[in-house]
Amino acid sequence: MKQALASVIANDKIAEDVFVVRLEEPDQARDVQPGQFVHVRCGSDNDPLLRRPLSVLRTGANPVNKLRASHYEVMYGVVGRGTEILSRARAGDLVDVLGPLGRPFKIERHARHLLLVGGGVGIVPLVALAEEAIRRDVSVTLLCGFRAVSKVFPADRLPAEVEYHVATDDGSTGHQGFVTTLAEEHVAWADQICACGPVAMLKALARLERPRALPVHIAMEERMGCAMGVCLGCVVPTRRGPRRVCRDGPVFSVDEMGWT
Question: C-alpha dihedral over 234, 4, 6, 54, to 10 degrees?
């Protein structure tokens, strides 16, 4: 973990109210792993006061995506004042970033068919994980649900090797309905599942009929104050008692959550 002033290389709008900011900070880019996040100060002079936890989309530590080794990308939705300020950042600006933070995804040693399930901006850590899987010659199917076509993550920002399926609430593109319905059709193919998205989606995924030995790992999305395990603002209940998403997660086994 390192606190640093990362230089903005680009800050591009890729969908409705969704941006990808590319940052240059060699130590953070080298160390971050799929599923980890950074804690970003969006404004200046402690306004807004709290940093925003943002998952890392892609990193130059993975040669699959051809980013420079010193670069990494963060994707975020504009949902409030902090992210609105960040959306105005331009090339050459400096952003105060703490990270990488949290427990990452791990691809199981035996995995050859990786099923990724995302909801909205929950696709973010799954892109980095897909690139890592491709590097290891693991087949990847990525399923993601969005509210409408205007929110869909562009397919051209994924490795060509990834099989990508989209669900939308309004049926404006892809499957109309929940992404977990698509997941039902792919469970038999997978030997590992990883997911990130709203809790309701993750609970539905946990209830899917699946082989007992099929590992399912999820990345939790929670509001955070400190992101270092001190404030306890991101605690979630698990079978092992209260756990901090920032330090004990954000990646958990779905069986830890007690939803099944």
Answer: -10
Task: Respond yes or no on whether the N-terminal peptide bond of residue 100 is cis (omega within 30° of 0).
Answer: yes
* 63-88: burial string, b at 16+ Cβ within 10 Å, e else: ebbebeebbbbbbbbbeeebbebbbe
Distance in angstroms (rounded) separating the CA atoms of residues 157 and 14: 10
Neighbours of 16 (CB within 10 A): 14
Helix 199-206 to helix 179-186 angle (10° resolution) is 30
Contacts of 208-213 with CB under 8 Å at 24 or more apart are 208/180, 208/183, 208/184, 209/184
- 211 cis-preceded (ω within 30 degrees of 0): no
Q: Indicate whether 225 pLDDT > 80.
A: yes
Q: ω into residue 250 within 30 of 0, thus cis?
A: yes
Farthest CA pair distance, the chain = 52
Instruction: Identify residue 224 by its one-letter amino acid code.
Output: M
Please determine, for residue 45, whether its predicted confidence score (pLDDT) is greater than 90. no
Residue 258, pLDDT > 90, answer no
Domains and CATH numbers, the chain: 2-101 (2.40.30.10), 113-257 (3.40.50.80)
Closest CA to 201 of 188, 173, 223, 182: 182
pLDDT, position 149: 97
The b/e string for 206-224 (b: 16+ C-beta within 10 A; e otherwise) is: bebebeeeebbbbbbbeeb
